[in-house]
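Holo prediction — flavin-adenine dinucleotide.
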Amino acid sequence: MEKKNKFEKENAVEQSAKKFDILIIGGGVAGMSAAIYAKRRRKNVAILERMALGGQVNEIPKIENFPSVSSIDGQSLAQQFSKQIEYLGVDVIYDDIQRVDYDHPEKRIFGKNAEYVAKSVIIATGVSYVELGKNEKDFLGKGASFCAVCDANFFKGVEVCVASKNGSGLKDALFLTELCSKVTVLDSEDMVAYAQANKNKKLEVISNVNIEQLLGEDILSGVQVSIRDKKKESQMTAESGKNKEMVFSVEYRVVPTSALFIELGKKPDGKVFGGVKVDEKGFVVTDENMRTSIDGVFAVGDVRSKMLKQIVTACSDGAIAGQQA
Ligand SMILES: Cc1cc2nc3c(=O)[nH]c(=O)nc-3n(C[C@H](O)[C@H](O)[C@H](O)COP(=O)(O)OP(=O)(O)OC[C@H]3O[C@@H](n4cnc5c(N)ncnc54)[C@H](O)[C@@H]3O)c2cc1C
């Protein structure tokens, strides 16, 4: 069979690929907002989504900080967005994007099902939250939360806990002390120095904690933890002469709490970044017009390096990119 050279192969891809003015990778609220603005400019635009329109919003039991809507559940808000997308006639293509090539003026996107070409690309792939890996999903909306800024208001004046790793939850814990009566940080690493220097009377930091299980009948009532006493373990090692890996001092305890905020970090997926500049945590760096370091490639929403990752800021990013791309 005749072998095709690189140029011929690439040309063949371009011939078979579906072509658009703007392709938006990710159909969360950031991607859908971008689509609304792009479509109203009469651009040939499509959203590429691997799961369901709405993204993270689908997982939120109650939203009370989206302007103009006093209180709504996430799935209803996602549906309202989807209806608007449908009304405007935006193409929604269900495909899981595996890789991209932004090295040409026509950007190429390779999904599991098909290949796509566009003049501009808007990356709107969001983030995934680092999970505890215990039974926290049983308590989402019933005391367990992945977002202190979003849900703090539901726990005014009560005692709450924050699951943290090496200080990852401290910023949110300090924020929570403004509303809650007491905040206990359950950190999996050694935070003794921080705990000793802490002067905030509402904040307690416990080190070397392993969260074993979330407890409660219907709503969260406490957290079962095991706490290692590393100081005692060192003393016991010295006294016994045993290998330090063999010496444990563990206390099992139930920490009563109305809420557990799981603040172990968020991670973006770089699969569709195609070499755009990212910050030290892997989030895409843009200018105020959502332009990335590659011409014709924009980034919006939680995937972007920014201070406040919320629905309203994701929509704002999307509007700007949809107008610029
Ligand atoms: C439990 C929870 C509660 C929250 N509560 C609130 C709140 O009360 N108020 C508030 O303002 N914010 C809240 N947030 C934050 C808010 O949900 C996010 O800031 C916002 O939804 C981000 O939107 P996004 O479009 O940037 O990303 P996402 O919603 O993450 O959307 C990204 C989309 O991209 C898709 N995608 C990813 N990779 C690919 C790929 N390779 N190919 C195709 N598709 C892909 C995903 O399937 C997803 O649909 C909460 C978040 C969580 C998790």
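READOUT: Helices lie at 6-16, 29-40, 74-88, 148-151, 170-177, 192-197, 230-240, 311-324.
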